[in-house]
Amino acid sequence: MARYESLLDACGGTPLVGLPRLSPAVPEGAPPVRLWAKLEDRNPTGSIKDRPAMFMVREAERAGRLRPGDTILEPTSGNTGISLAMVAKLRGYRLVCVMPENVSTERVQLLRMYGAEIIFSPAAGGSNQAVATAKQIAAEHPDWVTLFQYGNPDNARAHYETTGPELLHDLPTITHFVAGLGTTGTLMGTGRYLREKVEGIEIIAAEPRYGELVYGLRNIDEGYVPELYDATVLTRRFSVGTRDAVLRTRQLVEVEGIFAGFSTGAILHAALAVAHQAVRDGRRADVAFVVADGGWKYLSTGAYGGTLADAEDALEGQLWA
Amino acid sequence: MAIEVRIPTILRNYTGGAKVVEGAGDTLSDLLSDLDGKYSGLRGRLVTDEGGLHRFVNVYVNDEDVRFLGSLNAKVSDGDTVTILPAVAGGAFGFAAAAAISSHAATVAVR
């Protein structure tokens, strides 16, 4: 336990906990295969996004791009928005979030509670459309500062300078790192750091695979790959469907007592896949994976109870990570 | 047995609306050529003129991204499931789009 001068100083330094019950059993005499969970829900606003939010703001201040009283514009209503709203409040900025109209009232309430203002963009077209809308609004307000997490190197740098070193310090024998792929910042930053320090380490991405309706694209050319993404940092990339993500999310709380959001279930699914492969290959493995956030914000989906089929239906058409 | 290929909505105009089609081949490239014989033009939407996978297309063999399995040379065999998906902005932005899409979906059809 430690004491901190302010909430911002309490970001990072999250616990890495072993999962002795979920780690696969190995035959007698075989090298151990162990799973480790990095509890990122223990950050100030409850998610891994506090790290990049704080870093992006701090580096923008340092570079003179952000001055007291400035307005920050960001396309997000998820964890990054919540993190940025908290950082903006404490550092004296106004935050404007761009998000599609008809977003859940819980999200709007949470962001407004932290002091963010909201501009709604057209609902049709999904997340790609909203990113484009934010870029357009930014062009109309040249004095507003856009941190743009999908392309901001400080998003990845936050993990290069904090998440990566913390993992190596706590688990020098690490062989695999598994995290979710969204903006790609966590995997790019942590992955680059670990690759420099640990020979042969595997960097594994788990990305959520949503129902058809979620994509909202009219053709392939409307697709989007975050500017931060560099495939050479990764060694494997898994697409995890809703059912597997829900199953693993429930297993994590039932077996190990860790109550996490559904993106963590997807990450655990990929972590278990590589852990079981290590067992089959008779190789030692210390597999560290990210618990991106707690389950609180997702309780209203109803997907923590009932049958798996019910949960799958409850999440159909939703982006759960 | 054959290889099951899942087609995203935006490419189903090539498959007569079929969500799942079947094909054969030893590699992903063979499989796509086989499919192109039945669904003309499909391969051209997935593979660039330079012979690589389209930047905004992700292809998975049994849930694993083929770009880490040899890309178009990735091995496939009977019983595998191949999933084709467009690249989208993921991550923390999710929930906004979620609500937007579910409200949009409600006007179309909700399962």
Written description of the protein model:
The complex is a heterodimer of chains A (321) and B (111). In chain A, 40% of the residues lie in helices and 17% in strands. By secondary structure, chain A is an alpha/beta fold. Chain A has a six-stranded mixed sheet. In chain A, strand 8 (202-209), helix 7 (212-215) and strand 9 (236-241) form a beta-alpha-beta unit. In chain A, helix 1 crosses helix 2, helix 8 packs across helix 9 (262-281) and helix 8 (242-256) crosses helix 10. Chain A is globular and about 65 Å long. Chain B is built from three helices and five strands, in the order E-E-H-H-E-E-E-H. Chain B is globular and about 30 Å long. Chain B is an alpha+beta fold. Helices cover 28% and strands 19% of the residues of chain B. The two termini of chain B are 30 Å apart. Chain B has helices at 28-38, 42-46, 94-108; strands at 3-6, 20-23, 57-61, 64-65, 81-86. Classes of the chains: A alpha/beta (321), B alpha+beta (111). At the A-B interface, helix 2, helix 4, strand 8, helix 7 and strand 9 of A face strand 3, strand 4, strand 5 and helix 3 of B.
